[in-house]
Amino acid sequence: MSVRYTKHYLSKLEDIFAETDYILRYEKGNFQSGYCILKETKIAIINKYFSLDGKINSIIDILRTINPDTSKLSEKNRALLSEIQQNQLQI
User: Fold this and answer.
1) pTM, rounded to two decimals
2) 30: how many CB neighbours lie within 10 A of its CB?
3) Domain annotation covers residue 72
4) Can you tell me the distance from the alpha carbon of 35 to that of 48, in angstroms, rounded to the nearest whole number?
5) Structure letter (DSSP) for residue 46
6) Among residues 33, 32, 39, 78, which one has the least CA distance to residue 59?
7) Is 37 helix (H, G, I), strand (E, B) or coil?
8) How many whole angstroms separate alpha carbon 83 and alpha carbon 33?
9) What whole-number distance in Å separates Cα of residue 4 and Cα of residue 14?
10) In the chain, how many domains are there?
11) Residue 2 is assigned to a structural domain of this protein
């Protein structure tokens, strides 16, 4: 499966965060990697001025870094998350 840089694909990735304990926020900031993860409070912050491609790549990087509880995820989101974490997506 390959990454599609569309708003629909971005919303699919955001849905994964909606079903986990992590909160995804878009904020102004000059993070070196384009995003920041506050692990104690389970918040992921992405630079809101990023392009669509940058936001999608940042969310994919974050999902590869964190280990959300997959028992709360729907089947579609669980399958998408497992593809992301197994590096099966072609960027």
Assistant:
1) 0.86
2) 7
3) yes
4) 9
5) E
6) 33
7) strand
8) 22
9) 14
10) 1
11) no
Q: Which domain holds residue 34?
A: 22-77
Instruction: Give the angle subtended at the CA of 67 by the CAs of 14 and 12, to the nearest 5°.
Output: 15
89 in any annotated domain: no
User: How far from 88 is each of 39, 77, 85, CA to CA, in Å?
Assistant: 25, 15, 8
Cβ-based neighbours of 40, under 8 Å, separated by 6 or more: none
Query: What are the pLDDT tens digits along the chain (91 aa)?
Result: 578 899 999 999 999 999 998 999 999 877 777 888 888 899 999 999 889 999 999 999 999 888 888 888 999 999 999 888 887 665 5
As given in the structure block, the two tokens for residue 59 are 């969310």
Q: How far apart are CA 1 and CA 18, in angstroms?
A: 22
On whether residue 87 sits in a domain, the answer given is: no
